[in-house]
């Protein structure tokens, strides 16, 4: 009995100690619940929120450039972010292949590895959030940011995005899916109103975001700049509240794109949680009184703060030491290998007449390498997705390294692309007429209007600056500054010169006091030209004004020297060579954030370059370094082969060399339709037809859905890609197992080379009561096959994925009907078919 009382006493004391410990946690300064890892994240967040003042809460919902505001009093750390979706844009890093390149692999498992690699590099830079992936659907082929995205099909994009996000977040870094929603053009992107049906939103433009939330548990979502159905995305309750947070159950934080907020009250009352880059509209001065007056419910502000804190807790930032930079995680051998493999698997063989590829190194004595993208590594497109790559490999570098001992390789550039020109060398620039000092006089101002006294005066040897997100000098900030350069220019020979300014943001160039370039406005990096006859031996007075508002900062003053005929050297080299590799495409200034391409042709006379070279040599292989479709009617019939390299990251040169010489059998397939002409595309009738708005009159008929349903012949269809071997499909069977349609078929490699085939499953409803596309992608698989090998492929389709969105009921509807299962090598090359009845 005595022992039992002692036992009860011990239990009582233990419970008192436990309850006392808990009480202290709730009330003591040193034992608060939010500091204790024994509590759940929700409990810790709720406790921390109780400790915060209104002023501190408001501070949390406005950024500080690329971070949230820390609250030192409570130990709340900043949440640090970095661009972008294809690599870490924070100083230099590995440039991974562009988003469209990733999509061309049709390999979700590989893209999971890419995400993990980008996550590691983000940690290596001591950042917590990567601002990617970008998943907007490729609707308009001239969109300047198409290269960032995963193509035109929501199912393919969803599978890749889910795996990318899981990869990033497996490394303890937050992914950010963007741009929500209907951000499908750069023209007027800051304010254009995308007028689109609810059905098209839910069937085409939402699925990738929904999958990211419900399957990948993405931690961050970024809204877009544009309006959607008359409301800015940052204050659009249908997008951010009804769909994202309520229907899909998103628990993370919603941030604005940089400068995408336009109001205080509507934004604060809505679903956007964090204004970036700063709290221009959401700050103490604008919010305190409306909150205290009850105009903005405090619970709405609390929800925003809770979401930000939840991400901070999920990343473990309260429970570990301050993240330090780890250079060993950046550009590691493992990450370079992943970049190489992705580039390799993304390459699409579009034409291969007479099996000119793969090249036989034993049969080629002289090889001409021609074009503006041969000696330059086109790692990515421009804007916030551009990564300053560490040791990028150009095609010419790789070709020479691997084959110059066996083949005579000669190079000529042919033409120059926008943004390729380097700053005018200092030996042609002078500070005054005495010509004793080379360079230009530079005056730097701490405002964007060249006002007041300059904060810094110096001599800049040339104007060739890529400051990006850094400041040009200690006396000058990272943003909101201006520069004036003055001096004289002396040319080496008489002729027609093209003076160029490549800037982000505005510039004005005066030649002998005459304004010849006037580009005084905000924009991403763009090049302006002024062509003029200049005489040898004469001094020309130069004044160049520049300002930087926000974001990246670039200022380049360049020229193109006089040239008799820019094609002559290329034609001459082609005539004396056994074979020509012609590397053409776009630059990061042609395909870039902030502007759309003017048309679908290759810029800067490259179509004419191809034609003239092809007339001089019958063995021409064209390699395209673009991030989006182009038209080829001017030269396609003249060349033997066409290979789509895309913007292929740091290892693109090695990858294309291995494909061209048969060290790897190309397996990429197009994630976008290549049209024969712009007029055939679904957006043709409405793009730029109305100021500040665009009607999605194509509705759900985007990409191959449009081409197939309207029976328009594309140049190259969605899902298309040749191989150095051949594949045969057979033995299709299907069965119903609950909600799953189980599909089985065989693929055989009937050629003489090992290879990979991407089998695509499309579905077509036989008797729909509503207008539906001819067919839609619902499954796919990449299959590796040795020569002569046969494999059985098994895939499943959930019946619910065959439903359509009913705009009348605002819900999904699966009709009882017959559905045709189509197995294809592309959307136009159907190999097998059968019918499944859902009654």
TrEMBL record:
<protein>
    <submittedName>
        <fullName>Glycoside hydrolase family 3 C-terminal domain-containing protein</fullName>
    </submittedName>
</protein>
<dbReference type="InterPro" id="IPR026891">
    <property type="entry name" value="Fn3-like"/>
</dbReference>
<dbReference type="GO" id="GO:0008422">
    <property type="term" value="F:beta-glucosidase activity"/>
</dbReference>
<dbReference type="InterPro" id="IPR036962">
    <property type="entry name" value="Glyco_hydro_3_N_sf"/>
</dbReference>
<dbReference type="Pfam" id="PF07691">
    <property type="entry name" value="PA14"/>
</dbReference>
<comment type="similarity">
    <text>Belongs to the glycosyl hydrolase 3 family.</text>
</comment>
<feature type="domain" description="PA14">
    <location>
        <begin position="435"/>
        <end position="575"/>
    </location>
</feature>
<dbReference type="Pfam" id="PF00933">
    <property type="entry name" value="Glyco_hydro_3"/>
</dbReference>
<dbReference type="InterPro" id="IPR036881">
    <property type="entry name" value="Glyco_hydro_3_C_sf"/>
</dbReference>
<dbReference type="InterPro" id="IPR037524">
    <property type="entry name" value="PA14/GLEYA"/>
</dbReference>
<dbReference type="InterPro" id="IPR013783">
    <property type="entry name" value="Ig-like_fold"/>
</dbReference>
<dbReference type="InterPro" id="IPR050288">
    <property type="entry name" value="Cellulose_deg_GH3"/>
</dbReference>
<dbReference type="Pfam" id="PF14310">
    <property type="entry name" value="Fn3-like"/>
</dbReference>
<dbReference type="GO" id="GO:0005975">
    <property type="term" value="P:carbohydrate metabolic process"/>
</dbReference>
<dbReference type="InterPro" id="IPR017853">
    <property type="entry name" value="GH"/>
</dbReference>
<keyword id="KW-0378">Hydrolase</keyword>
<dbReference type="InterPro" id="IPR011658">
    <property type="entry name" value="PA14_dom"/>
</dbReference>
<dbReference type="InterPro" id="IPR002772">
    <property type="entry name" value="Glyco_hydro_3_C"/>
</dbReference>
<dbReference type="Pfam" id="PF01915">
    <property type="entry name" value="Glyco_hydro_3_C"/>
</dbReference>
<dbReference type="InterPro" id="IPR001764">
    <property type="entry name" value="Glyco_hydro_3_N"/>
</dbReference>
